[in-house]
Amino acid sequence: MAFQEKGKQLFSSPATFAYGVRKVEDLPLDRLPEIAFAGRSNVGKSSLINALVGSQIARASNTPGRTQELNFFKIGTRFYLVDLPGYGYAAAPKKTVETWTRLIHDYLRGRQQLRRVFLLIDARHGIKQVDENIMKMLDSAAVSYQLILTKTDKIKDSELQKIYENTMAVAKTHVACYPEILSTSSENGLGIADLRGEVYKVIEGL
């Protein structure tokens, strides 16, 4: 509960859009810690970020692949939240998809101030092969990441439990995956306080 309260205080600072980055050389030069959100197209990244900061700073869309750049949101003067383009499917030309996929990989592999990647998994579908590919890449790059189940309000509790158990079983086979899964819903607020607390712990190095 203490970390939830600390997380609430952390996110009481104003959240503002800072940068939209399409090339690695345009990444912010300051050394603020960064927390990135990744996931398949239409997994609910923007909605979760909005719920996390308590305002509509990230553009949510029902069209997969709407986010085509790395969007940096500055939280007070403490750190950045980074909304990564969705992977797996996108309503965009193939060349565009390849360009931003390369950008994601370059960013995740070489960013020293990146403290953790939160990898979002749609609770209705569980981990797909494309998610495992990203997990393997993060493992090889030694980037710490944590799985978050999204849209948990869309399925029954019994189904969620099965998805949770299956997701945990996969997570245990990946060396860089943090051994705790968060269940969230941007619709009803489930898990948002826990996620804020987790971000606080990461930023503080706890």
What is the helix fraction of residues, given as a range? 25-40%
CATH architecture: 3-Layer(aba) Sandwich
Q: pLDDT under 50 segments (min length 5)?
A: none
Oligomer: single chain
CATH superfamily: P-loop containing nucleotide triphosphate hydrolases
Count of the separate structural domains = 1
Instruction: Give the SSE string.
Output: HEEHEEHEHEHEH
The dominant shape is: globular
Distance between the termini: 15 Å
Fraction of residues in β-strands: 15-25%
Largest sheet: 7 strands, mixed
- Under CATH, the topology can be stated as Rossmann fold
Describe this protein's structure.
This protein is α/β, with parallel strands linked by helices. 36% of the residues lie in helices and 20% in strands. It has a 7-stranded mixed sheet, sandwiched between helices. Helix 1 packs across helix 6. 40% of the residues are buried.
From the structure above, extract its key features.
single chain; 206 residues; alpha/beta; Rossmann fold; 7-stranded mixed sheet; 36% helix; 20% strand
Briefly say what this structure is.
With 206 residues, the protein is an alpha/beta fold.
